[in-house]
DNA sequence: GTCTATAAGCTGATAGAC
DNA sequence: GTCTATCAGCTTATAGAC
Protein backbone atom coordinates (compact mmCIF):
# COMPACT_ATOMS: atom_id res chain seq x y z
CA UNK A 1 0.00 0.00 0.00
CA UNK A 2 1.41 3.40 -0.98
CA UNK A 3 1.89 6.25 1.45
CA UNK A 4 -0.84 8.17 -0.31
CA UNK A 5 -3.36 5.36 0.09
CA UNK A 6 -2.43 4.92 3.72
CA UNK A 7 -3.02 8.60 4.36
CA UNK A 8 -6.28 8.46 2.48
CA UNK A 9 -7.59 5.67 4.65
CA UNK A 10 -6.45 7.42 7.77
CA UNK A 11 -8.39 10.54 6.76
CA UNK A 12 -11.43 8.39 5.96
CA UNK A 13 -11.48 6.78 9.38
CA UNK A 14 -10.78 10.10 11.14
CA UNK A 15 -13.83 11.64 9.45
CA UNK A 16 -15.95 8.59 10.24
CA UNK A 17 -15.00 8.72 13.90
CA UNK A 18 -15.70 12.45 14.14
CA UNK A 19 -19.03 11.93 12.36
CA UNK A 20 -19.95 9.10 14.72
CA UNK A 21 -19.43 11.38 17.71
CA UNK A 22 -21.39 14.31 16.27
CA UNK A 23 -24.29 12.21 14.96
CA UNK A 24 -24.42 10.44 18.32
CA UNK A 25 -24.57 13.70 20.23
CA UNK A 26 -27.09 15.57 18.06
CA UNK A 27 -28.69 13.17 15.61
CA UNK A 28 -28.62 13.49 11.82
CA UNK A 29 -30.46 16.81 11.59
CA UNK A 30 -28.70 18.38 14.54
CA UNK A 31 -25.17 17.52 13.49
CA UNK A 32 -23.33 19.77 11.02
CA UNK A 33 -20.48 19.12 8.60
CA UNK A 34 -18.81 22.16 10.11
CA UNK A 35 -18.49 20.58 13.55
CA UNK A 36 -17.56 17.20 12.09
CA UNK A 37 -14.78 18.86 10.09
CA UNK A 38 -13.51 20.75 13.14
CA UNK A 39 -13.50 17.57 15.21
CA UNK A 40 -11.61 15.74 12.46
CA UNK A 41 -9.17 18.64 12.08
CA UNK A 42 -9.98 19.16 8.40
CA UNK A 43 -11.43 21.89 6.21
CA UNK A 44 -15.15 21.50 5.72
CA UNK A 45 -15.17 20.84 1.94
CA UNK A 46 -12.90 17.85 2.42
CA UNK A 47 -15.71 16.05 4.18
CA UNK A 48 -17.89 16.50 1.12
CA UNK A 49 -14.99 15.57 -1.14
CA UNK A 50 -14.47 12.27 0.64
CA UNK A 51 -18.12 11.36 1.27
CA UNK A 52 -20.02 13.27 -1.43
CA UNK A 53 -22.85 14.36 0.88
CA UNK A 54 -23.95 14.55 4.49
CA UNK A 55 -26.57 11.86 3.92
CA UNK A 56 -23.97 9.51 2.44
CA UNK A 57 -21.57 10.07 5.34
CA UNK A 58 -24.43 9.24 7.68
CA UNK A 59 -25.18 6.03 5.78
CA UNK A 60 -21.52 5.00 6.02
CA UNK A 61 -21.59 5.56 9.77
CA UNK A 62 -24.74 3.45 10.07
CA UNK A 63 -23.20 0.66 7.96
CA UNK A 64 -20.10 0.60 10.15
CA UNK A 65 -22.29 0.18 13.22
CA UNK A 66 -24.44 -2.62 11.83
CA UNK A 67 -21.35 -4.54 10.68
CA UNK A 68 -20.09 -4.82 14.25
CA UNK A 69 -23.19 -6.53 15.56
CA UNK A 70 -22.71 -10.25 15.17
CA UNK A 71 -23.76 -11.93 18.36
CA UNK A 72 -22.94 -15.34 19.74
CA UNK A 73 -26.67 -16.03 19.56
CA UNK A 74 -26.10 -16.19 15.79
CA UNK A 75 -24.63 -19.64 15.93
CA UNK A 76 -26.99 -21.18 18.49
CA UNK A 77 -29.07 -24.19 17.40
CA UNK A 78 -31.96 -26.12 18.88
CA UNK A 79 -29.34 -28.55 20.24
CA UNK A 80 -27.81 -25.95 22.56
CA UNK A 81 -28.86 -25.28 26.13
CA UNK A 82 -31.18 -22.23 26.09
CA UNK A 83 -30.07 -21.20 29.60
CA UNK A 84 -26.44 -20.87 28.53
CA UNK A 85 -27.20 -19.28 25.15
CA UNK A 86 -29.63 -16.67 26.51
CA UNK A 87 -27.42 -15.88 29.52
CA UNK A 88 -24.49 -15.21 27.21
CA UNK A 89 -26.59 -13.27 24.73
CA UNK A 90 -27.83 -10.97 27.50
CA UNK A 91 -24.37 -10.40 28.99
CA UNK A 92 -22.66 -9.77 25.65
CA UNK A 93 -25.36 -7.31 24.57
CA UNK A 94 -25.09 -5.57 27.93
CA UNK A 95 -21.32 -5.29 27.71
CA UNK A 96 -21.65 -3.81 24.22
CA UNK A 97 -24.02 -1.20 25.65
CA UNK A 98 -21.64 -0.37 28.48
CA UNK A 99 -18.55 -0.18 26.29
CA UNK A 100 -19.82 1.19 23.00
CA UNK A 101 -22.89 3.22 23.87
CA UNK A 102 -22.29 5.70 21.08
CA UNK A 103 -23.07 3.19 18.36
CA UNK A 104 -26.25 2.15 20.11
CA UNK A 105 -27.36 5.78 20.48
CA UNK A 106 -26.83 6.58 16.80
CA UNK A 107 -28.79 3.50 15.81
CA UNK A 108 -31.54 4.32 18.33
CA UNK A 109 -31.97 7.87 17.03
CA UNK A 110 -32.13 6.60 13.47
CA UNK A 111 -34.88 4.12 14.36
CA UNK A 112 -36.81 6.64 16.49
CA UNK A 113 -36.83 9.08 13.59
CA UNK A 114 -38.40 6.45 11.34
CA UNK A 115 -35.48 4.26 10.18
CA UNK A 116 -35.51 5.92 6.75
CA UNK A 117 -31.81 5.35 6.06
CA UNK A 118 -31.65 1.91 7.65
CA UNK A 119 -35.00 0.46 6.60
CA UNK A 120 -33.41 -1.78 3.96
CA UNK A 121 -30.99 -3.26 6.49
CA UNK A 122 -33.88 -4.02 8.86
CA UNK A 123 -35.95 -5.74 6.18
CA UNK A 124 -33.20 -7.55 4.29
CA UNK A 125 -30.71 -8.47 7.01
CA UNK A 126 -32.19 -8.18 10.48
CA UNK A 127 -35.58 -9.65 9.62
CA UNK A 128 -34.19 -12.98 8.35
CA UNK A 129 -31.89 -13.08 11.40
CA UNK A 130 -34.90 -12.60 13.70
CA UNK A 131 -36.92 -15.31 11.91
CA UNK A 132 -34.12 -17.82 12.24
CA UNK A 133 -33.65 -17.04 15.96
CA UNK A 134 -37.41 -17.32 16.52
CA UNK A 135 -37.20 -20.77 14.92
CA UNK A 136 -34.55 -21.88 17.42
CA UNK A 137 -36.59 -20.64 20.38
CA UNK A 138 -39.72 -22.36 19.05
CA UNK A 139 -37.81 -25.63 18.88
CA UNK A 140 -36.60 -25.16 22.44
CA UNK A 141 -40.22 -24.72 23.48
CA UNK A 142 -41.47 -27.71 21.45
CA UNK A 143 -38.81 -30.00 22.91
CA UNK A 144 -39.73 -28.89 26.42
CA UNK A 145 -36.42 -27.17 27.06
CA UNK A 146 -38.12 -23.96 28.11
CA UNK A 147 -41.53 -22.56 29.01
CA UNK A 148 -43.82 -21.37 26.21
CA UNK A 149 -43.27 -17.66 25.64
CA UNK A 150 -43.67 -15.41 22.60
CA UNK A 151 -40.21 -15.67 20.95
CA UNK A 152 -40.36 -12.27 19.24
CA UNK A 153 -41.37 -10.52 22.45
CA UNK A 154 -38.55 -12.33 24.26
CA UNK A 155 -35.91 -11.16 21.78
CA UNK A 156 -37.26 -7.59 21.86
CA UNK A 157 -37.10 -7.83 25.65
CA UNK A 158 -33.41 -8.74 25.63
CA UNK A 159 -32.62 -6.03 23.09
CA UNK A 160 -34.49 -3.32 24.97
CA UNK A 161 -33.25 -4.13 28.48
CA UNK A 162 -29.61 -4.23 27.42
CA UNK A 163 -29.64 -1.28 24.99
CA UNK A 164 -31.34 0.79 27.68
CA UNK A 165 -28.00 1.14 29.50
CA UNK A 166 -26.47 2.75 26.40
CA UNK A 167 -29.36 4.79 25.04
CA UNK A 168 -30.62 6.10 28.38
CA UNK A 169 -27.20 6.41 30.01
CA UNK A 170 -27.74 10.11 30.77
CA UNK A 171 -30.98 9.32 32.61
CA UNK A 172 -29.42 6.44 34.53
CA UNK A 173 -26.50 8.59 35.66
CA UNK A 174 -28.86 11.41 36.70
CA UNK A 175 -31.07 9.00 38.65
CA UNK A 176 -28.27 7.11 40.38
CA UNK A 177 -26.02 10.11 40.97
CA UNK A 178 -23.08 8.27 39.46
CA UNK A 179 -20.53 9.85 37.15
CA UNK A 180 -20.25 6.74 35.03
CA UNK A 181 -21.23 3.09 35.07
CA UNK A 182 -18.48 0.67 36.09
CA UNK A 183 -17.65 -3.04 35.97
CA UNK A 184 -19.55 -3.71 39.22
CA UNK A 185 -22.71 -2.23 37.68
CA UNK A 186 -22.23 -4.42 34.61
CA UNK A 187 -22.07 -7.57 36.75
CA UNK A 188 -24.97 -6.55 39.00
CA UNK A 189 -27.27 -5.60 36.12
CA UNK A 190 -26.21 -8.63 34.09
CA UNK A 191 -27.04 -10.93 37.02
CA UNK A 192 -30.43 -9.28 37.54
CA UNK A 193 -31.44 -9.30 33.87
CA UNK A 194 -30.22 -12.83 33.28
CA UNK A 195 -31.91 -14.22 36.40
CA UNK A 196 -35.27 -12.55 35.80
CA UNK A 197 -35.46 -13.39 32.10
CA UNK A 198 -34.21 -16.98 32.47
CA UNK A 199 -36.43 -17.76 35.45
CA UNK A 200 -39.28 -16.08 33.56
CA UNK A 201 -38.70 -18.59 30.77
CA UNK A 202 -38.67 -21.49 33.21
CA UNK A 203 -34.89 -21.87 32.99
CA UNK A 204 -32.28 -22.17 35.72
CA UNK A 205 -29.56 -19.52 35.41
CA UNK A 206 -26.07 -21.00 34.83
CA UNK A 207 -24.06 -21.43 38.04
CA UNK A 208 -21.04 -19.40 37.06
CA UNK A 209 -22.24 -15.90 36.31
CA UNK A 210 -19.31 -14.56 34.40
CA UNK A 211 -19.87 -11.04 33.12
CA UNK A 212 -17.92 -12.10 30.01
CA UNK B 1 -63.10 33.79 29.39
CA UNK B 2 -63.10 36.31 26.54
CA UNK B 3 -63.12 35.36 22.90
CA UNK B 4 -59.60 36.71 22.57
CA UNK B 5 -58.26 34.55 25.37
CA UNK B 6 -59.99 31.51 23.98
CA UNK B 7 -58.36 32.09 20.61
CA UNK B 8 -55.01 32.65 22.27
CA UNK B 9 -55.16 29.33 24.04
CA UNK B 10 -56.26 27.58 20.89
CA UNK B 11 -53.25 28.99 19.04
CA UNK B 12 -50.97 27.95 21.92
CA UNK B 13 -52.14 24.35 21.83
CA UNK B 14 -52.03 24.25 18.03
CA UNK B 15 -48.37 25.31 18.07
CA UNK B 16 -47.57 22.86 20.85
CA UNK B 17 -49.12 19.99 18.94
CA UNK B 18 -47.30 20.90 15.73
CA UNK B 19 -44.05 21.22 17.68
CA UNK B 20 -44.59 17.85 19.32
CA UNK B 21 -44.93 16.21 15.92
CA UNK B 22 -41.88 17.91 14.41
CA UNK B 23 -39.62 17.37 17.44
CA UNK B 24 -40.75 13.75 17.55
CA UNK B 25 -39.94 13.20 13.90
CA UNK B 26 -36.57 14.97 13.74
CA UNK B 27 -35.36 15.78 17.25
CA UNK B 28 -34.57 19.24 18.61
CA UNK B 29 -31.74 20.05 16.19
CA UNK B 30 -33.44 18.57 13.16
CA UNK B 31 -36.80 20.29 13.63
CA UNK B 32 -37.23 23.84 12.31
CA UNK B 33 -39.59 26.65 13.35
CA UNK B 34 -40.43 26.95 9.66
CA UNK B 35 -41.93 23.47 9.48
CA UNK B 36 -43.60 23.82 12.87
CA UNK B 37 -45.23 27.05 11.71
CA UNK B 38 -46.40 25.47 8.44
CA UNK B 39 -47.86 22.50 10.32
CA UNK B 40 -49.66 24.85 12.72
CA UNK B 41 -50.88 27.00 9.80
CA UNK B 42 -49.23 30.17 11.11
CA UNK B 43 -46.50 32.58 10.03
CA UNK B 44 -43.12 31.71 11.47
CA UNK B 45 -42.64 34.82 13.64
CA UNK B 46 -45.83 34.00 15.52
CA UNK B 47 -44.16 30.92 16.97
CA UNK B 48 -41.41 33.11 18.37
CA UNK B 49 -43.95 35.67 19.53
CA UNK B 50 -45.86 33.05 21.53
CA UNK B 51 -42.90 31.03 22.83
CA UNK B 52 -39.99 33.52 22.75
CA UNK B 53 -37.46 30.99 21.41
CA UNK B 54 -37.11 27.54 19.89
CA UNK B 55 -35.45 26.24 23.05
CA UNK B 56 -38.32 27.50 25.20
CA UNK B 57 -40.91 25.92 22.93
CA UNK B 58 -39.00 22.66 23.23
CA UNK B 59 -38.97 22.91 27.03
CA UNK B 60 -42.74 23.49 27.06
CA UNK B 61 -43.25 20.40 24.94
CA UNK B 62 -41.05 18.37 27.33
CA UNK B 63 -42.95 19.69 30.37
CA UNK B 64 -46.27 18.72 28.82
CA UNK B 65 -45.00 15.19 28.32
CA UNK B 66 -43.61 14.74 31.84
CA UNK B 67 -46.87 16.01 33.37
CA UNK B 68 -48.82 13.15 31.83
CA UNK B 69 -46.72 10.42 33.40
CA UNK B 70 -48.25 9.56 36.73
CA UNK B 71 -48.47 5.84 37.02
CA UNK B 72 -50.57 3.64 39.24
CA UNK B 73 -47.30 2.37 40.71
CA UNK B 74 -47.11 5.81 42.37
CA UNK B 75 -49.60 4.89 45.05
CA UNK B 76 -48.43 1.35 45.75
CA UNK B 77 -47.21 0.55 49.28
CA UNK B 78 -45.45 -2.37 50.94
CA UNK B 79 -48.92 -3.61 51.94
CA UNK B 80 -49.98 -4.22 48.34
CA UNK B 81 -49.53 -7.44 46.41
CA UNK B 82 -46.42 -7.03 44.21
CA UNK B 83 -47.82 -9.38 41.57
CA UNK B 84 -50.87 -7.19 41.02
CA UNK B 85 -48.98 -3.88 41.24
CA UNK B 86 -46.18 -4.90 38.86
CA UNK B 87 -48.59 -6.55 36.40
CA UNK B 88 -50.64 -3.35 36.22
CA UNK B 89 -47.55 -1.13 36.02
CA UNK B 90 -46.24 -3.13 33.04
CA UNK B 91 -49.57 -3.13 31.19
CA UNK B 92 -50.27 0.56 31.75
CA UNK B 93 -46.78 1.54 30.61
CA UNK B 94 -47.15 -0.69 27.56
CA UNK B 95 -50.53 0.80 26.64
CA UNK B 96 -49.04 4.29 26.92
CA UNK B 97 -46.30 3.24 24.50
CA UNK B 98 -48.83 1.80 22.05
CA UNK B 99 -51.20 4.77 22.22
CA UNK B 100 -48.90 7.75 22.71
CA UNK B 101 -45.62 6.76 21.18
CA UNK B 102 -44.80 10.28 20.06
CA UNK B 103 -44.33 11.50 23.63
CA UNK B 104 -42.07 8.61 24.41
CA UNK B 105 -39.98 9.23 21.30
CA UNK B 106 -39.46 12.92 22.09
CA UNK B 107 -38.42 12.05 25.62
CA UNK B 108 -36.13 9.28 24.38
CA UNK B 109 -34.33 11.55 21.92
CA UNK B 110 -33.87 14.18 24.62
CA UNK B 111 -32.28 11.63 26.96
CA UNK B 112 -30.14 10.06 24.21
CA UNK B 113 -28.74 13.49 23.34
CA UNK B 114 -27.67 14.03 26.94
CA UNK B 115 -30.83 15.17 28.79
CA UNK B 116 -29.59 18.76 28.83
CA UNK B 117 -33.06 20.32 28.88
CA UNK B 118 -34.62 17.74 31.17
CA UNK B 119 -31.76 17.08 33.59
CA UNK B 120 -33.42 19.06 36.39
CA UNK B 121 -36.63 17.07 36.08
CA UNK B 122 -34.67 13.82 36.29
CA UNK B 123 -32.76 14.90 39.40
CA UNK B 124 -35.50 16.75 41.24
CA UNK B 125 -38.65 14.83 40.36
CA UNK B 126 -37.89 11.42 38.88
CA UNK B 127 -35.03 10.58 41.23
CA UNK B 128 -37.12 10.91 44.45
CA UNK B 129 -39.88 8.93 42.73
CA UNK B 130 -37.41 6.15 41.93
CA UNK B 131 -36.05 6.11 45.50
CA UNK B 132 -39.49 5.77 46.98
CA UNK B 133 -40.44 2.94 44.60
CA UNK B 134 -37.14 1.17 45.35
CA UNK B 135 -38.11 1.39 49.02
CA UNK B 136 -41.41 -0.37 48.38
CA UNK B 137 -39.74 -3.16 46.41
CA UNK B 138 -37.10 -3.61 49.14
CA UNK B 139 -39.88 -4.05 51.71
CA UNK B 140 -41.58 -6.60 49.49
CA UNK B 141 -38.29 -8.51 49.39
CA UNK B 142 -37.67 -8.20 53.15
CA UNK B 143 -41.16 -9.47 53.98
CA UNK B 144 -40.66 -12.44 51.66
CA UNK B 145 -43.33 -11.33 49.21
CA UNK B 146 -40.93 -11.64 46.28
CA UNK B 147 -37.51 -12.97 45.35
CA UNK B 148 -34.46 -10.82 45.99
CA UNK B 149 -33.67 -8.80 42.87
CA UNK B 150 -31.97 -5.45 42.31
CA UNK B 151 -34.93 -3.00 42.53
CA UNK B 152 -33.38 -0.31 40.33
CA UNK B 153 -32.52 -2.80 37.59
CA UNK B 154 -36.08 -4.16 37.83
CA UNK B 155 -37.65 -0.72 37.33
CA UNK B 156 -35.29 0.06 34.44
CA UNK B 157 -36.30 -3.30 32.99
CA UNK B 158 -39.99 -2.43 33.04
CA UNK B 159 -39.35 1.03 31.60
CA UNK B 160 -37.14 -0.25 28.79
CA UNK B 161 -39.26 -3.23 27.73
CA UNK B 162 -42.45 -1.17 27.52
CA UNK B 163 -41.00 2.00 26.00
CA UNK B 164 -39.31 -0.14 23.36
CA UNK B 165 -42.66 -0.55 21.58
CA UNK B 166 -42.95 3.23 21.21
CA UNK B 167 -39.35 4.25 20.60
CA UNK B 168 -38.46 1.39 18.24
CA UNK B 169 -41.86 1.16 16.57
CA UNK B 170 -40.33 1.67 13.11
CA UNK B 171 -37.96 -1.26 13.67
CA UNK B 172 -40.71 -3.49 15.04
CA UNK B 173 -42.97 -2.78 12.06
CA UNK B 174 -40.11 -3.40 9.62
CA UNK B 175 -39.22 -6.69 11.33
CA UNK B 176 -42.75 -8.00 11.67
CA UNK B 177 -44.00 -6.71 8.31
CA UNK B 178 -47.03 -5.15 10.00
CA UNK B 179 -48.42 -1.74 9.09
CA UNK B 180 -49.22 -0.92 12.70
CA UNK B 181 -49.47 -2.58 16.08
CA UNK B 182 -52.98 -3.50 17.20
CA UNK B 183 -54.89 -4.47 20.33
CA UNK B 184 -54.01 -8.15 19.89
CA UNK B 185 -50.31 -7.28 19.91
CA UNK B 186 -50.81 -5.23 23.06
CA UNK B 187 -52.39 -8.19 24.87
CA UNK B 188 -49.85 -10.71 23.59
CA UNK B 189 -46.81 -8.57 24.46
CA UNK B 190 -48.34 -7.55 27.80
CA UNK B 191 -48.91 -11.20 28.71
CA UNK B 192 -45.35 -12.14 27.73
CA UNK B 193 -43.66 -9.26 29.55
CA UNK B 194 -45.79 -9.62 32.66
CA UNK B 195 -45.30 -13.39 32.87
CA UNK B 196 -41.54 -13.33 32.34
CA UNK B 197 -40.88 -10.45 34.73
CA UNK B 198 -43.24 -11.68 37.46
CA UNK B 199 -42.03 -15.27 37.31
CA UNK B 200 -38.49 -13.92 37.24
CA UNK B 201 -39.25 -12.18 40.53
CA UNK B 202 -40.69 -15.37 42.01
CA UNK B 203 -44.26 -14.12 41.66
CA UNK B 204 -47.33 -15.79 40.20
CA UNK B 205 -48.94 -13.72 37.45
CA UNK B 206 -52.53 -12.63 38.30
CA UNK B 207 -55.18 -14.97 36.87
CA UNK B 208 -57.14 -12.41 34.90
CA UNK B 209 -54.77 -10.86 32.41
CA UNK B 210 -56.68 -7.77 31.49
CA UNK B 211 -54.81 -5.52 29.07
CA UNK B 212 -56.32 -2.56 30.98
C1' DG C 1 -5.71 15.31 -4.46
C1' DT C 2 -6.34 18.99 -1.36
C1' DC C 3 -7.28 23.32 -0.26
C1' DT C 4 -9.55 28.58 -0.41
C1' DA C 5 -13.29 31.13 -1.71
C1' DT C 6 -17.85 31.36 -2.48
C1' DA C 7 -22.47 30.27 -3.82
C1' DA C 8 -27.46 29.59 -2.80
C1' DG C 9 -30.53 28.67 0.58
C1' DC C 10 -32.31 27.95 5.17
C1' DT C 11 -31.85 29.03 10.20
C1' DG C 12 -33.64 31.48 14.53
C1' DA C 13 -34.84 35.85 15.73
C1' DT C 14 -36.21 40.93 15.23
C1' DA C 15 -38.16 45.55 13.65
C1' DG C 16 -41.84 47.86 12.52
C1' DA C 17 -46.36 48.34 9.83
C1' DC C 18 -51.16 47.63 10.67
C1' DG D 1 -51.97 41.39 19.22
C1' DT D 2 -50.78 39.81 14.61
C1' DC D 3 -48.71 40.09 10.54
C1' DT D 4 -44.89 41.35 6.46
C1' DA D 5 -40.32 42.16 5.58
C1' DT D 6 -35.88 41.46 6.81
C1' DC D 7 -31.63 40.56 9.60
C1' DA D 8 -27.13 38.26 10.40
C1' DG D 9 -25.39 33.88 10.70
C1' DC D 10 -25.02 29.23 9.61
C1' DT D 11 -26.25 25.30 6.45
C1' DT D 12 -24.77 21.99 2.58
C1' DA D 13 -22.49 21.93 -1.49
C1' DT D 14 -19.60 23.58 -5.47
C1' DA D 15 -16.04 26.00 -8.51
C1' DG D 16 -11.64 26.63 -9.30
C1' DA D 17 -6.69 27.74 -7.65
C1' DC D 18 -2.67 25.20 -6.43
TrEMBL record, chains A, B:
Membrane spanning residue stretches: none
HTH tetR-type domain location: 9-69
Keyword list, A-Z: DNA-binding
Pfam families, A to Z: TetR_C_3, TetR_N
Portion annotated as DNA-binding: 32-51
Cross-referenced PANTHER family: HTH-TYPE TRANSCRIPTIONAL REPRESSOR SCO4008, TRANSCRIPTIONAL REPRESSOR
Name of this protein: TetR family transcriptional regulator C-terminal domain-containing protein
Organism: Marinomonas ostreistagni
